[in-house]
């Protein structure tokens, strides 16, 4: 019987191919290591950013952004329930004292005004009627007193004649006594009438005072409603601008609801936000520079908010220089606050990935700017644009400030012009 023997050639072929691949990879790696050494590299000058080390005044600046606000703002609110009938001025409009901003309407107030006006007129009419009644009562009482006095005068004359006749015996003394008694009775009635007349004057005066009080109350109530109706016309109480409108046409508002915010324009301040990571350097009275349109205006920090909101700290800057014509409330502005500074120190444009108060490997160009070599530079304070140099470089040195992190093992860079 024939026995088939499997050939070993395929296994040998696989071994030969594997060995060839390993040798080829080793050769390529060896060649690469000699052709591109990590000690040197080439960069075009157009692909890098250079800066020259300077020496002079160096300020630590805290970047800030925000808007102008008025230091004097007035919030006008509704005095009673009403409906917005007309909007005459909108945000940004210039205003003077008395400028009409809004007009409201309130049927309830109109109706109340008519009712109170009728009550006032009725009170005035009641006083006139009361005075007529009092005058009539006084006339009647005065007439009655006059009649009693006339009767007393007649009785006095008759009593004298009767007394003479009684003494002559013509008439009895009893008749004389009756006449004397009647005379005394009339005298008593006169005294009572005089007292009544005096009291009537006092009572009439008090009644008129009471009526005057009712008239005054009715007048005050009517005046209060009239003032409320007048306040339905919302006017400015200061010169400036309309900063914010809180209502829309046809909207119903209640007492105390916000209507409009007005601001003066002659005392603007800058409300700025400083990033939380820079807020530790903030202090009151620090110098600030605010960009308002094309102008740069100086100021001083007057308030620092104690709370952090959305990663920023609110700062208020009082502007100490005349403002440009473009300045107005709510205008967006930016600028910086001078936290501290150095009068004479080295600094350079902030290199990529640089951190303040750290050491960093930077590349310094030679005098011909054809080669660059690594130097260990000690960095100091950072103001966002420039960074202080404490050691490792001198004034006039040219450094590469663009990103060179991929060249950290390179000992020499050939700069291609």
3D architecture notes:
The protein has 417 residues and is of the alpha+beta class. The protein folds into four domains: 40-59 and 344-416, Beta Barrel (conserved putative lor/sdh protein from methanococcus maripaludis s2 fold); 63-69 and 264-340, Elongation Factor Tu (Ef-tu), domain 3 (Beta Barrel), CATH 2.40.30; 72-106 and 232-263, Beta Barrel (OB fold (Dihydrolipoamide Acetyltransferase, E2P)); 108-230. 35% of the residues lie in helices and 36% in strands. The radius of gyration is 53 Å and the shape is rod-shaped. Residues 1-9 and 27-37 have low confidence and may be disordered.
Shape: rod-shaped
Whole-number tally of structural domains: 4
Q: Please give the number of β-strands.
A: 21
Derived from helix and strand composition plus strand pairing, the structural class reads alpha+beta
Q: Could you give the order of the helices and strands?
A: HEEEEEEEHHEEEEEEEEEEEEEE
Note the main attributes of this structure:
alpha+beta, conserved putative lor/sdh protein from methanococcus maripaludis s2 fold, Elongation Factor Tu (Ef-tu), domain 3, OB fold (Dihydrolipoamide Acetyltransferase, E2P), six-stranded antiparallel β-barrel, four-stranded antiparallel β-sheet, 3 helices, 21 strands, rod-shaped
